[in-house]
Design goal:
The protein is α/β, with parallel strands linked by helices. It has twelve helices and eight strands. Helix 3 (86-91) links the parallel strand 3 and strand 4 (96-99). The longest helix is centred in the C-terminal third of the chain and has 18 residues, at 186-203. The model has no long low-confidence stretch (mean pLDDT 95). Bound molecules: phosphoenolpyruvate. Phosphoenolpyruvate binds next to strand 8. Belongs to the triosephosphate isomerase family. It catalyses: D-glyceraldehyde 3-phosphate = dihydroxyacetone phosphate. Homodimer.
Length: 257
Protein backbone atom coordinates (compact mmCIF):
# COMPACT_ATOMS: atom_id res chain seq x y z
CA UNK A 1 0.00 0.00 0.00
CA UNK A 2 1.21 3.51 -0.77
CA UNK A 3 2.55 5.68 2.02
CA UNK A 4 0.22 8.61 2.39
CA UNK A 5 1.12 10.77 5.36
CA UNK A 6 -1.88 11.09 7.68
CA UNK A 7 -3.39 14.56 7.95
CA UNK A 8 -5.43 15.92 10.85
CA UNK A 9 -7.04 19.27 10.08
CA UNK A 10 -8.95 21.34 12.63
CA UNK A 11 -11.78 23.57 11.41
CA UNK A 12 -12.45 26.13 14.12
CA UNK A 13 -15.41 27.56 12.20
CA UNK A 14 -16.59 30.92 13.60
CA UNK A 15 -15.04 30.46 17.04
CA UNK A 16 -12.16 32.12 18.91
CA UNK A 17 -10.95 35.70 18.50
CA UNK A 18 -7.29 36.42 17.80
CA UNK A 19 -6.38 36.42 21.49
CA UNK A 20 -8.18 33.13 22.19
CA UNK A 21 -6.35 31.74 19.18
CA UNK A 22 -3.00 32.55 20.72
CA UNK A 23 -3.72 30.39 23.76
CA UNK A 24 -5.31 27.56 21.81
CA UNK A 25 -2.68 27.17 19.12
CA UNK A 26 0.13 27.47 21.66
CA UNK A 27 -1.29 24.63 23.75
CA UNK A 28 -1.72 22.41 20.71
CA UNK A 29 1.62 23.19 19.18
CA UNK A 30 3.44 22.65 22.47
CA UNK A 31 1.85 19.23 22.97
CA UNK A 32 2.86 18.28 19.43
CA UNK A 33 6.40 19.60 19.63
CA UNK A 34 8.15 16.46 20.77
CA UNK A 35 10.60 15.22 18.16
CA UNK A 36 8.77 11.90 18.02
CA UNK A 37 5.80 13.65 16.52
CA UNK A 38 6.47 13.85 12.83
CA UNK A 39 4.36 11.06 11.49
CA UNK A 40 1.19 13.09 11.06
CA UNK A 41 0.59 16.44 9.35
CA UNK A 42 -1.37 18.74 11.65
CA UNK A 43 -3.23 21.79 10.35
CA UNK A 44 -5.43 24.35 12.07
CA UNK A 45 -7.93 26.48 10.15
CA UNK A 46 -8.97 29.43 12.33
CA UNK A 47 -11.08 32.41 11.28
CA UNK A 48 -9.32 34.88 8.93
CA UNK A 49 -8.89 37.39 11.74
CA UNK A 50 -6.82 34.88 13.77
CA UNK A 51 -4.38 33.93 11.04
CA UNK A 52 -1.80 36.59 11.82
CA UNK A 53 -1.74 35.51 15.47
CA UNK A 54 -1.39 31.86 14.56
CA UNK A 55 1.41 32.70 12.14
CA UNK A 56 3.28 34.59 14.85
CA UNK A 57 2.96 31.83 17.44
CA UNK A 58 4.04 29.10 15.05
CA UNK A 59 6.91 31.06 13.51
CA UNK A 60 8.18 32.11 16.93
CA UNK A 61 9.02 28.59 18.01
CA UNK A 62 9.28 26.60 14.82
CA UNK A 63 6.23 24.55 15.72
CA UNK A 64 5.58 21.58 13.49
CA UNK A 65 2.02 22.61 12.85
CA UNK A 66 0.61 24.18 9.72
CA UNK A 67 -2.34 26.48 9.27
CA UNK A 68 -4.85 27.51 6.71
CA UNK A 69 -8.16 29.23 6.06
CA UNK A 70 -11.76 28.04 5.99
CA UNK A 71 -12.72 29.72 2.72
CA UNK A 72 -11.30 31.92 -0.05
CA UNK A 73 -12.50 34.05 -2.93
CA UNK A 74 -12.42 32.55 -6.41
CA UNK A 75 -11.13 35.91 -7.69
CA UNK A 76 -7.50 37.03 -7.71
CA UNK A 77 -8.09 40.64 -6.60
CA UNK A 78 -10.30 43.63 -7.21
CA UNK A 79 -13.72 44.98 -6.35
CA UNK A 80 -15.03 42.12 -4.21
CA UNK A 81 -15.90 43.77 -0.92
CA UNK A 82 -15.44 41.49 2.06
CA UNK A 83 -13.60 38.76 0.18
CA UNK A 84 -10.12 37.36 0.82
CA UNK A 85 -7.82 36.33 -2.05
CA UNK A 86 -5.73 33.16 -2.12
CA UNK A 87 -2.57 35.22 -2.63
CA UNK A 88 -3.27 37.04 0.67
CA UNK A 89 -3.53 33.73 2.50
CA UNK A 90 -0.35 32.40 0.89
CA UNK A 91 1.44 35.59 1.91
CA UNK A 92 0.42 34.94 5.54
CA UNK A 93 2.00 31.51 5.40
CA UNK A 94 -1.17 29.48 4.95
CA UNK A 95 -0.59 26.11 3.34
CA UNK A 96 -4.17 24.82 3.23
CA UNK A 97 -7.61 26.22 2.47
CA UNK A 98 -10.90 24.41 3.09
CA UNK A 99 -13.22 24.80 0.11
CA UNK A 100 -16.83 23.72 -0.31
CA UNK A 101 -17.55 23.00 3.33
CA UNK A 102 -21.18 21.91 3.70
CA UNK A 103 -21.92 25.03 5.75
CA UNK A 104 -20.68 27.21 2.86
CA UNK A 105 -22.71 25.14 0.41
CA UNK A 106 -25.82 25.43 2.57
CA UNK A 107 -25.69 29.00 3.90
CA UNK A 108 -23.84 30.68 1.03
CA UNK A 109 -25.27 28.74 -1.89
CA UNK A 110 -21.88 27.43 -3.03
CA UNK A 111 -22.24 25.01 -5.90
CA UNK A 112 -19.75 22.61 -7.46
CA UNK A 113 -18.67 25.16 -10.08
CA UNK A 114 -17.80 27.70 -7.39
CA UNK A 115 -16.02 25.05 -5.32
CA UNK A 116 -14.03 24.17 -8.45
CA UNK A 117 -13.10 27.83 -9.04
CA UNK A 118 -12.00 28.22 -5.42
CA UNK A 119 -9.93 25.01 -5.52
CA UNK A 120 -8.18 26.34 -8.64
CA UNK A 121 -7.51 29.68 -6.91
CA UNK A 122 -5.92 27.84 -3.98
CA UNK A 123 -3.80 25.63 -6.24
CA UNK A 124 -2.77 28.66 -8.26
CA UNK A 125 -1.37 30.23 -5.08
CA UNK A 126 0.66 27.06 -4.36
CA UNK A 127 -1.50 26.01 -1.41
CA UNK A 128 -3.45 22.81 -0.83
CA UNK A 129 -7.23 22.89 -1.12
CA UNK A 130 -9.18 20.64 1.24
CA UNK A 131 -12.20 19.98 -0.97
CA UNK A 132 -15.26 18.95 1.05
CA UNK A 133 -17.92 16.63 -0.29
CA UNK A 134 -20.72 14.79 1.49
CA UNK A 135 -24.38 13.88 1.39
CA UNK A 136 -27.28 14.98 3.58
CA UNK A 137 -29.52 12.66 5.55
CA UNK A 138 -32.21 12.32 2.87
CA UNK A 139 -29.69 11.24 0.27
CA UNK A 140 -28.10 8.80 2.71
CA UNK A 141 -31.51 7.29 3.54
CA UNK A 142 -32.32 6.86 -0.14
CA UNK A 143 -29.02 5.03 -0.71
CA UNK A 144 -27.75 7.61 -3.19
CA UNK A 145 -24.77 8.75 -1.11
CA UNK A 146 -21.96 7.36 -3.26
CA UNK A 147 -23.41 8.76 -6.49
CA UNK A 148 -24.03 12.12 -4.81
CA UNK A 149 -20.48 12.39 -3.49
CA UNK A 150 -18.91 11.31 -6.80
CA UNK A 151 -20.94 13.94 -8.67
CA UNK A 152 -19.67 16.59 -6.25
CA UNK A 153 -16.13 15.28 -6.74
CA UNK A 154 -16.37 15.41 -10.55
CA UNK A 155 -17.65 18.98 -10.36
CA UNK A 156 -15.01 20.13 -7.90
CA UNK A 157 -12.15 18.67 -9.98
CA UNK A 158 -13.23 19.97 -13.38
CA UNK A 159 -10.09 20.87 -15.39
CA UNK A 160 -7.77 20.30 -12.45
CA UNK A 161 -4.63 18.59 -13.72
CA UNK A 162 -3.04 15.39 -12.40
CA UNK A 163 -0.14 17.42 -11.05
CA UNK A 164 -2.60 19.64 -9.16
CA UNK A 165 -4.81 16.88 -7.83
CA UNK A 166 -1.78 15.14 -6.31
CA UNK A 167 -1.51 18.08 -3.93
CA UNK A 168 -5.25 18.31 -3.30
CA UNK A 169 -6.95 16.84 -0.26
CA UNK A 170 -10.51 15.49 -0.42
CA UNK A 171 -12.62 15.49 2.75
CA UNK A 172 -15.66 13.23 2.89
CA UNK A 173 -18.03 14.82 5.38
CA UNK A 174 -21.51 13.34 5.58
CA UNK A 175 -23.68 16.30 6.58
CA UNK A 176 -25.70 14.19 9.02
CA UNK A 177 -22.52 13.48 10.98
CA UNK A 178 -21.27 17.08 11.25
CA UNK A 179 -21.67 18.53 14.72
CA UNK A 180 -24.26 15.92 15.60
CA UNK A 181 -22.16 13.54 17.67
CA UNK A 182 -23.24 10.85 15.24
CA UNK A 183 -20.00 9.65 13.67
CA UNK A 184 -20.20 7.48 10.54
CA UNK A 185 -19.22 3.88 11.12
CA UNK A 186 -15.71 3.04 9.92
CA UNK A 187 -17.36 0.90 7.22
CA UNK A 188 -19.53 3.79 6.02
CA UNK A 189 -16.50 6.09 5.92
CA UNK A 190 -14.47 3.50 4.02
CA UNK A 191 -17.25 2.83 1.51
CA UNK A 192 -17.31 6.44 0.36
CA UNK A 193 -13.59 7.20 0.75
CA UNK A 194 -12.83 4.05 -1.27
CA UNK A 195 -15.30 5.11 -3.95
CA UNK A 196 -13.63 8.53 -4.11
CA UNK A 197 -10.23 6.91 -4.69
CA UNK A 198 -11.64 4.63 -7.38
CA UNK A 199 -13.10 7.68 -9.13
CA UNK A 200 -9.76 9.51 -8.89
CA UNK A 201 -8.17 6.52 -10.62
CA UNK A 202 -10.79 6.80 -13.39
CA UNK A 203 -10.39 10.57 -13.75
CA UNK A 204 -6.57 10.47 -13.62
CA UNK A 205 -4.78 7.17 -13.02
CA UNK A 206 -4.13 4.70 -10.24
CA UNK A 207 -0.77 6.20 -9.37
CA UNK A 208 -2.28 9.65 -8.90
CA UNK A 209 -5.23 8.24 -6.93
CA UNK A 210 -2.83 6.49 -4.56
CA UNK A 211 -1.17 9.80 -3.71
CA UNK A 212 -4.28 11.83 -2.89
CA UNK A 213 -5.13 12.10 0.78
CA UNK A 214 -8.78 11.50 1.61
CA UNK A 215 -10.08 12.63 5.00
CA UNK A 216 -13.20 11.69 6.89
CA UNK A 217 -15.05 14.42 8.79
CA UNK A 218 -18.08 14.36 11.08
CA UNK A 219 -18.01 14.07 14.88
CA UNK A 220 -14.44 12.80 15.01
CA UNK A 221 -13.19 12.52 18.61
CA UNK A 222 -10.20 11.10 20.41
CA UNK A 223 -12.02 7.87 21.09
CA UNK A 224 -13.27 7.11 17.54
CA UNK A 225 -10.34 8.27 15.38
CA UNK A 226 -8.26 5.06 15.56
CA UNK A 227 -11.05 2.89 14.12
CA UNK A 228 -11.55 5.35 11.28
CA UNK A 229 -7.82 5.52 10.55
CA UNK A 230 -7.70 1.73 10.37
CA UNK A 231 -9.67 1.91 7.12
CA UNK A 232 -7.65 1.52 3.92
CA UNK A 233 -8.78 4.74 2.25
CA UNK A 234 -9.14 7.05 5.27
CA UNK A 235 -5.94 9.11 5.45
CA UNK A 236 -6.91 11.57 8.15
CA UNK A 237 -9.71 13.67 9.54
CA UNK A 238 -11.29 17.08 9.23
CA UNK A 239 -12.29 17.93 12.78
CA UNK A 240 -14.76 20.61 13.86
CA UNK A 241 -15.92 20.70 17.47
CA UNK A 242 -13.09 18.59 18.88
CA UNK A 243 -10.47 20.87 17.31
CA UNK A 244 -11.43 23.63 19.77
CA UNK A 245 -10.33 21.47 22.69
CA UNK A 246 -6.54 21.20 22.69
CA UNK A 247 -6.52 17.97 24.72
CA UNK A 248 -9.02 16.31 22.42
CA UNK A 249 -7.37 17.52 19.21
CA UNK A 250 -3.93 16.38 20.37
CA UNK A 251 -5.45 13.00 21.22
CA UNK A 252 -6.75 12.79 17.66
CA UNK A 253 -3.36 13.74 16.24
CA UNK A 254 -1.72 11.12 18.47
CA UNK A 255 -4.18 8.39 17.57
CA UNK A 256 -1.30 5.93 17.16
CA UNK A 257 -0.05 6.33 20.75
C1 LIG B 1 -16.69 19.95 10.17
O1 LIG B 1 -17.53 20.84 10.19
O2 LIG B 1 -15.79 19.97 9.30
C2 LIG B 1 -16.78 18.89 11.16
C3 LIG B 1 -16.27 17.73 10.87
O3 LIG B 1 -17.42 19.18 12.36
P1 LIG B 1 -17.55 18.22 13.67
O4 LIG B 1 -16.22 17.55 13.88
O5 LIG B 1 -17.90 19.15 14.78
O6 LIG B 1 -18.62 17.22 13.37
Amino acid sequence: TPARKPLMAGNWKMNKNHLDALLLVQKMAFALKEPDFEAVDVVVCPPFTDLRTVQTVIAADNYAIQYGAQDVSQHASGAYTGEIAASMLAKLGCSYVIVGHSERREYHAEDDALVNAKAKAVLGAEMTPIVCVGEGLEVRKSGGHVAHVLAQLDGALEKISAEQVRRTVIAYEPVWAIGTGEVATPQDAQEVCGAIRTRLAELYDGGVADQVRILYGGSVKGDNIARLMAQADVDGALVGGASLDPGEFVKICRYRD
